[in-house]
Q: What sequence folds into this?
């Protein structure tokens, strides 16, 4: 088994937990390779011995699995790096709130055993790809959580002309518009009042950010439909954000969003489920008045 490892340098301060992971990987005789920047951080900054000198740069890697060490943001970055390589991702949480990275440091030994014993399942998550009329965009134009159109200045809203499957839907007058996958329904879209969608659902969510019309609500559509956006803004520009990676765009640039031709594969273990994560992270069933949980 060969595992590649990505990590968040700002989250990798748990020295003992990090060292435990690499000690266990060595104990299980698992071959590993580490992203170069993260490897240098482990060696030079926090004094963790990864028991390997195998490093990779850019997208020069192949593996059976990938481990993402950090929070959900780190896993999103890992998914962008992996792209269409079809490598399943294990998210080990070194942060706080994690819907994607839901394995904690006290589960490391069990998780490695489960990987070796094929005691896991793989969830295939829908991703979004963006296209622009002028060919501008990102080196990684695919988003696992959401694509967002956002205003750039603090003073004025933007107008987002939105069409679905070639038919005009609405002009959103708002601070922005989110096109979210089911995975992203517990991220940015949740903060603007969008519904929670089960990750395996084959839907997309369109949710405005601080809309100026109270009768405009989030809308769920099939994930094989295309969404086309054209922006008007007094500043003559707007922000195009893919999973938090933002880029300034001129209003002459229109954006088309559709389902990617590949899925992002997330490894899930028997001790974790989407619903148990919801109850844990969003405190479903918790009675804060009594300090008890109603299961």
A:
């Amino acid at each position: 088994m060969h595992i590649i490892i990505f990590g968040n340098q700002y989250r990798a301060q748990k020295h003992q937990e990090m060292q435990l992971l690499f000690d266990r990987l060595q104990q299980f005789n698992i071959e590993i390779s580490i992203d170069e920047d993260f490897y240098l951080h482990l060696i030079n900054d926090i004094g963790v011995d990864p028991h390997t000198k195998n490093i990779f740069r850019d997208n020069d890697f192949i593996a059976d699995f990938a481990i993402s060490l950090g929070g959900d943001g780190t896993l999103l970055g890992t998914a962008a790096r992996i792209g269409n390589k079809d490598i399943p991702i294990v998210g080990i949480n070194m942060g706080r709130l994690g819907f994607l990275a839901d394995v904690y440091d006290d589960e490391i030994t069990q998780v490695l055993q489960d990987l070796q014993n094929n005691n896991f399942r793989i969830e295939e998550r829908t991703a979004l790809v963006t296209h622009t009329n002028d060919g501008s965009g990102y080196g990684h134009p695919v988003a696992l959580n959401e694509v967002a159109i956002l205003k750039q200045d603090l003073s004025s809203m933007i107008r987002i002309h939105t069409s679905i499957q070639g038919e005009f839907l609405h002009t959103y007058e708002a601070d922005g518009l989110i096109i979210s996958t089911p995975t992203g329904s517990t991220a940015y879209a949740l903060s603007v009042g969008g519904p929670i969608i089960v990750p395996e659902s084959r839907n997309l969510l369109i949710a405005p950010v601080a809309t100026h019309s109270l009768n405009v609500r989030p809308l769920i559509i099939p994930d094989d439909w295309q969404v086309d956006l054209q922006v008007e803004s007094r500043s003559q520009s707007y922000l195009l954000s893919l999973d938090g990676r933002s880029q300034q765009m001129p209003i002459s640039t229109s954006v088309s969003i559709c389902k990617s031709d590949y899925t992002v594969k997330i490894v899930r273990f028997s001790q974790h489920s989407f619903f148990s994560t919801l109850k844990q992270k969003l405190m479903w069933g918790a009675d804060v008045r009594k300090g008890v949980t109603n299961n």
